[in-house]
Amino acid sequence: MIDLSDATGTQLFELIGRLYPICRSITGEGVRQTLRILQELIPLEIREVPTGTRVFDWEVPKEWNIHDAFVKDSRGRKIINFANSNLQVVNYSVPFRGKLKLEELKSHLFTLPDHPDWIPYRTSYYNESWGFCLSHRQLLSLADDEYEICIDSTLEVGSLSYGELVIPGATNREILLTTHICHPSLCNDNLSGIALVTWLAKQLSLRPNRYTYRILLLPGTIGSIAWLALNEAKVPLIQHGFVVAGVGDRGSFTYKKSRRGNAEIDAVFDYLLKSTSGNSDIVEFSPYGYDERQFCSPGFNIPVGCVMRTPHGQYPEYHTSADNLEFLSMDSLADSIEKCASVLDILENNRIYLNRNPKCEPRLGKRGLYRTIGGNTDEKKNELAMLWVLNLSDGNHNLLDIAQRSGLLFSEIQLAAAALLQHDLLKAVGD
Ligand SMILES: [Zn+2]
């Protein structure tokens, strides 16, 4: 397993701890502050899309910022206080000041009766309103009083911010890695994804890659719609990708297939999850979830899947104050990172080769390839792997196809291909 006790692991812990208190939303300073912190680890570009920009059927909304918010009782005590938790204010609440009786106030209060100690996470992006979230236990304890309300927020012309990093590879064909960055103090649903994508981006930028990697840190829905609308010409370069959702809860790893269902990214996750121990799930595509909804809309149909652990909405802590730092399991996060990194390694090496000697088998013995792959004792397996690679390298099978058809491991097939390539028995197709 990837060891998160090293320097990078420590950075990830610190990163999650620093990002947790920030009040993020789909626009505003919280997103910029988050992206600036990520810039300490990876050279992200922060891009701004002005309010009012038409992006397909949508429009970039006004920018929301909040400075303070509270509810005071008649004795002047702040009984609900944004300063204690940013979840206490409905995200995107419009400015409001006034005095309300409890009965009037109640229509602006949101709780979770089934989990009376938790505070819900609520948003009102496209419907101008205001509200507060609190524990159900506190709601029941509120006296029939007159309350002073203050929501010191702004909703003004500004911009939508997102982060983008392109890590050039040997080819300009791309792998897309993306996650949403719009949730306030929630850990699994958002910070785990941000941590995973940042970790992968950092590792990818330290090594030579075949593919070019495009890293997008986007506000959910409107961010991916805006990116797609403004970067349509770049879309054909994207060969594979995945959206990263909640990847740090204690549930098993889940991969949601792309809309295509049989794309290379789907095959690689399928292979990886079936060939590694531990529970994992593969679920079919559905047009509900995270930004795969946009990347897999029929006009784009990009081979983009989604990685998560427990699917959203299927754990009670989802979108509540209980999705906190304690809810996150560093072992789960490390396992998610390892699986995603393994998938990228397979994609990097999953090439199609052409057998340069396709008429009957080449003589491996005279090339020293029989019983001689560097130090590996499982020689029979290596020979078999070479025979499979030679036989199926007809330009129509990639190495993963060969691994699956032969029942051998991808790593064994990859090793065999490398040996054959070294002896000029294969040539690579494409870049
Ligand atoms: Zn969410």
β-strand amount:
15-25%
- Derived from helix and strand composition plus strand pairing, the structural class reads alpha/beta
Helix amount: 25-40%
The multimeric state of the shown protein is single chain
Strand order of the largest sheet: 1-10-12-11-13-16-14-15
Task: State Rg.
Answer: 25 Å
Main sheet characteristics: 8 strands, mixed
- Poorly predicted residue ranges: none
Let me know the number of strands: 19
Note the total helix count: 12
Envelope shape = elongated
In this entry the ligands are: zinc ion
Q: Averaging pLDDT over every residue, what do you get?
A: 95
**Span between N and C termini?**
31 Å
Describe the protein's architecture and organization:
This protein is α/β, with parallel strands linked by helices. Helix content is 31%, strand content 23%. It has twelve helices and 19 strands. The chain has helices spanning 7-19, 29-38, 102-106, 136-141, 187-205, 222-230, 264-275, 292-295, 330-349, 379-392, 399-406, 410-422; strands at 45-50, 54-55, 58-59, 63-72, 78-81, 96-101, 109-110, 132-133, 146-156, 159-167, 174-180, 212-218, 238-244, 253-256, 280-283, 304-308, 352-355, 394-398, 426-428. An eight-stranded mixed β-sheet has the order 1-10-12-11-13-16-14-15, with helices on both faces. It has a four-stranded antiparallel β-sheet with strand order 5-4-9-6. A three-stranded antiparallel β-sheet has the order 18-17-19. α5 (187-205) packs across α9 (330-349). The longest helix has 20 residues, at 330-349. The model has no long low-confidence stretch (mean pLDDT 95). It binds zinc ion. Zinc ion binds at residues 183, 189, 319.
